[in-house]
Specification:
The chain is mainly beta. Strands 1, 2, 3, 4, 5 and 6 form a six-stranded mixed beta sheet that branches. The longest helix is centred in the C-terminal third of the chain and has 8 residues. The chain is elongated.
């Protein structure tokens, strides 16, 4: 059993965006729905970090993206080397709109 999720890594707070010397560009602005706030950096990076872990929490795969990259887009770009017949659990953000009905029996 494996789990995938993402988390943001702020480079700075919104007030400091114009002074940021580490990164520049709109692609690094993202939204953290669980905290209901915008961030600048990486989504795991504001960038985001997308991490696949075992059920024990041991990371086995990860990808760092700009904060504006949707979870599903990052997931499609990951080359997962999981064992055959593995179960991968994720929230609905990792599914394309047309896949949600299949996954949730809608």
């Amino acid at each position: 059993m494996y789990i995938i999720d993402s988390f943001p890594v702020d480079v700075c707070k919104n007030i400091g965006i114009c002074r940021s010397k580490i990164i520049k560009g709109k692609e690094f602005r993202g939204y953290n729905a669980s905290k209901r706030e915008y961030f600048y950096g990486f989504k795991t990076a504001a960038a985001a970090v997308h991490v696949v872990t075992t059920k024990e929490g041991i990371p086995v795969e990860f990808m760092v993206t700009a904060g504006s990259i949707h979870d599903n887009t990052a997931f499609q770009g990951m080359s997962l080397g999981l064992p055959e017949n593995s179960d991968l659990y994720a929230d609905s953000a990792y599914l394309k709109e047309d896949q949600r009905g299949i996954a949730f029996g809608i």
